[in-house]
Fold this sequence. Notes:
Blueprint: H1 5-12, H2 19-26, H3 36-47, E1 50-53, E2 58-61, H4 64-68, H5 71-85
Antiparallel strand pairs: 1-2
Amino acid sequence: MASSPIVKLQTYGARAVNKSASSILSHKKKPQKLSKQARQKLNEIDALKVRRCTICKISYQGSLVAHKLSQIHKKNKLADMLEIKR
């Protein structure tokens, strides 16, 4: 199987030798934008997950962002940071 030099660069992660190869190697696929309904469905599924917070040492149900914004997490994180600095 004869592959092009650019494919070999992408596979083995070497440096590009010229501008055109560099532009092709630095090009990344953009993530697809989800529709509003799809994002809402993902958020609903995410809210049902049960997670464990390593800082608070508790299990909670809900989104990660909501837990990180809660007062309990903020107090525990502050206490953890102060303990590390000592």
